[in-house]
Amino acid sequence: MAELILNGKDLQTIEQLHQYVKEQLDFPDYDDTNMDSLFNCLTEYVTVPLTIKWLHFNESLNRLGQRANFVAGRMRDAAKSVDGLEFQVE
Predict the structure, then answer these.
(1) CB atoms inside a 10 Å sphere around CB 90
(2) DSSP state, residue 1
(3) Cα torsion at 34, 36, 42, 45 (round to 10°)?
């Protein structure tokens, strides 16, 4: 199973988070200010099985504020919509 690790210790900005996800999952360019765009990419372009693990999430919350919760929420929603896509927060 493929795995994407998001390390909260390394994520300094929301733009960096989106860029990292785009590059790692080979997404087309999308409007990273629109959480629906992230959801659409996660449900249309990922190759499953895939697990997305967000490590040190609390550090992301400290740096990114509620935007980290919004991104995590859209990732959770996508995982519920796509068989073989898992999302974990640690």
Answers:
(1) 10
(2) -
(3) -90
Tokens of residue 51, six digits: 């697990």
Q: Report how many domains make up the chain.
A: 1
Q: What is the pTM of this model?
A: 0.93
> In this predicted model, what pLDDT tens digit does every residue of 9-45 receive, in sequence order?
999 999 999 999 999 999 998 877 777 899 999 999 9
CA atoms lying within 13 Å on the CB side of residue 64: 25
Evaluate whether 76 touches 69 at the Cβ level (below 8 Å).
no
Position 61 scores a pLDDT of 96
Greatest C-alpha distance within the chain: 31
pLDDT of 36 reads: 87
Cβ neighbours for 27, distance < 8 A, ≥ 6 positions apart: 21, 41, 45
* CATH number of the domain residue 29 falls in: 3.30.370.10
